[in-house]
């Protein structure tokens, strides 16, 4: 059992910029004199792509700007940097090697610029998987220092998620929940008890490193590849036009995956040299392919609960966070398998950032919440 926050702010009156540096998306929230709110980081919603690229001037650009560079020059950018965080092997962009933490620093700098904050007068609150050790946490703190922040705080992603739900009144002090974090690159499960002084992680966090939205995208891509009967394999991957076409096809697969959370079917356009067609995929086909993997996440969740010395009946609920948790199949399977209430926000990508942005304060008990309501 250990405290969720590893570094506390020196000056709680400072503006707090909380950043969830996800594998595929980066979200941020701020707490200042106006309160706590999520930040609009890009032109496709509150979150921005976790992408870094080198533009024609040799400068590092992030988010949508980096995606535009990669649309025509895939070798100039990098995705999924979080999966490589802590690795000493550099990524090569436009012929120049960059360590993953250096690219993460650029990403954080882009967030600070979009948020219009002065890093020297702002506390950076960075979230991280619960199973990260001191080596990665020290690297993460150094990322904030390199980005110009004078004060740094780190908070585990499940603790931040639980704090967000406590702030909305859906959880109170004394509650224990299991946080089911199905993000872009990994699946993580951790049990959190909400003490009056803050969230405390119980037991040992569990996870599946190579299971996230990226891997679901690959399921859709494999469906397309099978539907076109080997046409994709016959393309010359050394042809720049082919590589751009494959990049666009992968983006189409991601869009189809997201559409299938609301619609019963989606159509994926394939436009490559010598190969122009459309492939249909139904929600049933996607769910059939994913059901065994969702079952794996529930087994991981069960191990996390067991490691905390608890039974499912001891939990106030299961907190769903991460973009991939928005798939209807996830909520259905988790509720059925655990028998516990499922808590999910309208935009699961923002929960962690919003919770991390909250200033450290006592968590209300059920009695206190009832007294306020009365």
Q: What labels would you give this structure?
A:
374 residues; alpha+beta; six-stranded mixed beta sheet; 10 helices; disordered N terminus; disordered C terminus
Task: Describe the model.
This protein is 36% helix and 27% strand. The strands form 5 sheets. A 6-stranded mixed beta sheet has the order 1-15-14-13-18-19. Strands 2, 3, 4, 5, 11 and 12 form a 6-stranded mixed beta sheet that branches. It has helices at 64-72, 100-115, 134-146, 157-167, 213-227, 240-259, 283-307, 328-338, 351-357, 366-373; strands spanning 2-3, 15-21, 25-32, 35-38, 48-49, 52-54, 60-62, 77-78, 91-93, 96-98, 122-128, 151-156, 176-182, 187-195, 198-208, 265-272, 275-282, 317-321, 342-344. α2 (100-115) crosses α3 and α7 (283-307) crosses α8. Mean pLDDT is 89; it is low at 1-10 and 366-374. The chain is globular and about 65 Å long. The chain starts with a strand and ends with a helix. The chain has 374 residues and is of the alpha+beta class.
Order of helices and strands: EEEEEEEHEEEHEHEHEEEHHEEHEHEHH
Q: What structural category arises from helix and sheet content?
A: alpha+beta
Largest sheet: 6 strands, mixed
Please bin the fraction of helical residues. 25-40%
Low-confidence stretches: 1-10, 366-374
Biggest sheet strand line-up: 1-15-14-13-18-19
Question: Which outline best applies?
Answer: globular
């Amino acid at each position: 059992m250990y405290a969720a926050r590893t570094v506390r702010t020196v000056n709680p009156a400072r503006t707090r910029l909380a950043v969830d540096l996800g594998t595929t998306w980066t979200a941020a929230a701020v707490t200042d004199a106006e309160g706590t709110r999520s930040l609009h980081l890009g032109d496709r919603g509150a979150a921005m792509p976790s992408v870094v690229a080198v533009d024609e001037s040799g400068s590092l650009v992030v988010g949508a700007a980096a995606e535009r560079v990669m649309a025509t020059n895939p070798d100039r950018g990098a995705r999924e940097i979080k999966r490589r965080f802590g690795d000493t092997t550099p990524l090569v962009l436009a012929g120049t090697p960059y360590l993953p933490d250096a690219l993460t620093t650029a990403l954080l700098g882009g967030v600070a610029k979009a948020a219009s904050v002065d890093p020297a007068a702002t506390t950076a609150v960075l979230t991280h998987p619960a199973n990260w050790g001191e080596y990665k946490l020290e690297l993460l703190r150094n990322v904030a220092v390199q980005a110009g922040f004078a004060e740094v705080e780190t908070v585990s992603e499940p603790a931040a998620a639980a704090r967000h739900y406590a702030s909305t009144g859906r959880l109170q002090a004394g509650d224990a929940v299991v946080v089911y974090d199905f993000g872009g690159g990994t699946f993580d499960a951790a049990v959190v008890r909400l003490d009056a002084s803050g969230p405390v992680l119980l037991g040992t966090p569990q996870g599946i490193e190579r299971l996230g939205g990226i891997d679901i995208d690959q399921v859709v891509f494999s469906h397309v590849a099978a539907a076109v009967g080997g046409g994709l394999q016959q393309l010359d991957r050394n042809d720049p036009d082919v590589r751009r076409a494959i990049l666009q096809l992968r983006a189409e697969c991601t869009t189809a995956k997201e559409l299938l959370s609301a619609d019963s079917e989606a159509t994926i356009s394939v436009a490559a040299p010598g190969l122009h067609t459309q492939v249909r995929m139904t929600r049933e086909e996607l769910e059939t392919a994913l059901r065994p993997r969702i079952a794996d996440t529930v087994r991981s969740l069960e191990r996390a609960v067991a490691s905390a010395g608890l039974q499912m009946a001891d939990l106030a609920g299961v907190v769903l966070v991460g973009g991939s948790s928005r798939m209807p199949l996830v909520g259905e399977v988790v509720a059925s398998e655990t028998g516990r209430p499922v808590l999910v926000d309208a935009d699961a990508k923002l929960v962690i950032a919003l919770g991390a942005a909250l200033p450290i304060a006592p968590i209300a008990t059920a009695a206190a919440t009832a007294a306020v309501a009365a």
